[in-house]
Description:
Elements: E1 5-9, H1 13-21, E2 26-30, H2 46-57, E3 61-66, H3 72-88, E4 92-95, H4 98-107, E5 113-115, H5 124-132, E6 137-139, H6 146-155, E7 159-166, H7 178-182, E8 200-201, E9 220-221, H8 226-232, E10 234-239, H9 246-260, H10 268-275, H11 303-311, E11 320-327, E12 333-340, E13 343-351, E14 353-354, H12 361-368, E15 376-384, E16 387-388, H13 391-409, H14 419-423, E17 437-442, H15 445-454, E18 458-461, H16 471-476, E19 482-485, H17 493-503, E20 510-513, E21 527-530, H18 539-547, E22 552-553, H19 561-571, E23 576-581, E24 584-588, H20 592-597, E25 605-611, E26 616-626, E27 629-637, E28 641-643, E29 656-660, H21 667-676, E30 684-685
Parallel strand pairs: 1-2, 1-10, 2-3, 3-4, 4-5, 5-6, 6-7, 7-10, 11-15, 17-18, 17-29, 18-19, 19-20, 20-21, 21-22, 23-29, 28-30
Antiparallel strand pairs: 7-9, 8-25, 11-12, 12-13, 14-16, 23-28, 24-27, 25-26, 26-27
Helix pairs in contact: 1-2, 1-9, 4-18, 6-8, 9-10, 9-11, 15-21
Amino acid sequence: MEHTELLAPAGNMQCLIAAVQNGADAVYFGGGEFNARRGAENFSGESLREAIDYCRLRGVKTHITLNTLLFDRELYDAVSFAAMAYRLGCDAVIVQDVGLAKILRAELPGLAIHASTQMGIHDIGGVEFCRKNGITRAVLSRELPLIEIRRLHSMSDLELEFFCHGALCMGFSGSCLYSSMAGERSGNRGSCAQPCRKCATVAQARRASEEELCLSPNDICMIDELGALRDAGIVSFKIEGRMKSPEYVATVTRIYRNALDGRAAADSRAKLFDIFNRGEFSTSHLYSDSVRTGGIGRARPDRGLVGEAQRSVQGEKRSVPIVARLEVTPHMPSELTLECKGRSVTVTGDAAEVSQREFNPGRYAAQIAKLGGTAFAVGSVEVSGGGFIPVSTVNAMRRRAADELAAAMLERREADVSRAAAEAHMHHRTPANGSPLCYVKVRTVAQARAAIAAGADIVAIEPVEPAAFELKTAEDMGFPHLWIALPNVLLTQGAHSAYKRLIDSGVFSGAEVNNIGQAAMVEHLSERIAGIGVNVCNSASMNMLLDMGFTGVIPSPELTSAQLRSLSNGFGSAMIINVYGRTPLMQLLHCPVKEYRGCQSCRGSAGVVTDGEGRRFPLSNMRFGDDNGRYCLVRMNNCSITYTCDIVHEAGMVYAYGAVIECGDDAAAAVRAIKTGGERPADFTRGHWNRRVN
């Protein structure tokens, strides 16, 4: 198997060394803030420079994670950090926030940008969004089937990266609000508390026991699928694990390096299992749903495996060959030249003397070859001149030359972004005046009719089964402001075809999209808004979407009232605030009800997940199908209804207010609550209105 890029994780310097010395072609790591593993040790200041230098000298690329959502107050600091990493020589930054990506593309044009898996790139629309906006690589969603990866590669020349090993989130990355709604620790901002790894059951009548873990999936292992993935168009195989130990990083990196190079050992899978597992491994949805839940994370390596990992970082296995030339002509200053990858340095030493013995070039070559502690190894040595210099002089020249060669190979770039330049992308637009509108998103035609009768201004339908949705039913309602709402994930060609039929039908006057890849699908509609799935948290993202032709945006539910008020001061007429409804916590391709109770052929309402505290999280589903079979996208919704109708007016935000109605909720009650501020639900939450996320 030909050499393919292997991208390994590094939560600290020990892990980075383990990755490099065990064959990683590239390493990804964070810089403290603004990355999705803020709990890792990470790198900043001098340690960031040290990490990048260590990799550059050994020909290993560095990808810096800037893969979280950002608030306005953080954007400039994130851009400044990216500029510093670029000056130091990083090869790419991994980004989730579309507003940050826009600023970096404009202000640091030489910096390569990769779309994080948190951006939710899983279809051709997402791939093309990346390509058009200067993003050179997409880290695809872990749930993609092989047939869809192959199709994306055939339709675009964008580089595709895919996770080959490690933890699998239960929900689609970038579409999870479970941790932030359960507390204040946001998975979108790098501080996920992993409530999905705690006890949960699909039983409705009781709380989950400690043994029940229906939201905790097993890890993925693609050791046997690397050839198929490479043939499908994957150019970089990514190992998850920035919170793992150096022994884990060393073991997994070495095993995958050997497999990619055609040297896989018979016990590779067993060693991967022993170094860490959550029960049986899976291949996610590569061929079909192979995910199973309930496994508890554990490591059980024996002394031999641990010792193998520890020995792998002893000594230098990634040294770079250099050419050395030493000139020792009598009565002339001695000169040592080192060359590597087009760089050349020359240092001088004491004048050579006339040799009293037979000239011995090997004596000098042996001293020059003593490059331990550096990234270099002598490929060839040429000694000429016939003179004599002491060994101490040779050693001193070698050390100086090695240091100067390293410095020459680590030449810094020029890069700086002023605050004014960064904040120019955050300019506010003048909000229009007007009475607030009532926007309601529903699942069924009956709910749509109830919302219209109650006085909703705009009603968007997200059909339970898009391919079977009767267009004439929508027409018969005679409502001029009927919209179509798209879910966070349209995974297959069949799902896209089902929605394309609805979007192009002429029935709907507008659309709500919940993934950046869906923008092109609705660009011909006069009204289109970006829903919460697009994850808008700052002014730069607002501006980017408005520049793309969106007429409105529903900001992230992770924003507080103060943050929403700040955005509304500049974008009021383009904002819709969800003030009523169940916040969608996770989008699931693997159905926990199906795993534990068998498929229930659900049509809208898909059961309940109950946690260890007895909280009940309703599940709803959408049904899709094509030539490759039928599947559901299952949504886990919050246990309580978010309700801020009675206080949103007090905050001085007057624009559009929205409600999210699931199959069991009352659409008419939601409209009345928005219009009057009354009718509080029996069990409600204020969400993040007064609770800032971490």
